[in-house]
Amino acid sequence: MRRLLLLNGPNLNLLGKREPDVYGSFTLDDVEQEVENVVTKNDCELVSKQTNHEGELVDLIQEAEGQYMGIILNAAAYTHTSVALHDAIKSITVPVIEVHISNIHSRESFRHQSLIAPVCYGQIVGFGLLSYRLAAEAIFSISK
């Protein structure tokens, strides 16, 4: 069976509690269910992980080669700081879609640059929970 990897980075375990004016009232469970709905329709299995640790994200990305048809990645704050994530994504052939709940380009200036965008297949920002569904649909669209 085909598998899709959903990776969420630091502080996303606090969705629904943390800055609801920016991130909405939905939870990480809601995110996972949103992606699961798309994955199930496409006869695929979803593996979902959340971590606050950069190295663990690097490990999960490196281990994805040959195991997953695609990765949906919300690297959260590491988006703007992590050369290690950039290099990990660059080292694999699995397509990675970068996702953000808020529009990072309309927020504080330090959030405008994504260090991972140049090595991701694409970037979806600013659509809230819908960002994740769009990313899942994109993975299935490019994997046909």
From TrEMBL:
Pathway linked to the protein: Metabolic intermediate biosynthesis; chorismate biosynthesis; chorismate from D-erythrose 4-phosphate and phosphoenolpyruvate: step 3/7
Matching InterPro entries: DHquinase_II (IPR001874), DHquinase_II_CS (IPR018509), DHquinase_II_sf (IPR036441)
One function term, GO molecular function aspect: 3-dehydroquinate dehydratase activity
Pfam families from the UniProt entry: DHquinase_II
EC number(s) stated in the UniProt entry for this protein: 4.2.1.10
Keyword Acetylation: no
Residues reported in the UniProt entry to bind substrate: N74, H80, D87, I101, S102, R111
Keyword annotations: Amino-acid biosynthesis, Aromatic amino acid biosynthesis, Lyase
Reactions listed under catalytic activity: 3-dehydroquinate = 3-dehydroshikimate + H2O
Classification via PANTHER family: CATABOLIC 3-DEHYDROQUINASE
Protein family (similarity comment): Belongs to the type-II 3-dehydroquinase family.
Protein name as it appears in the record: 3-dehydroquinate dehydratase
Source organism of this protein record: Ornithinibacillus halophilus
The encoding gene: aroQ
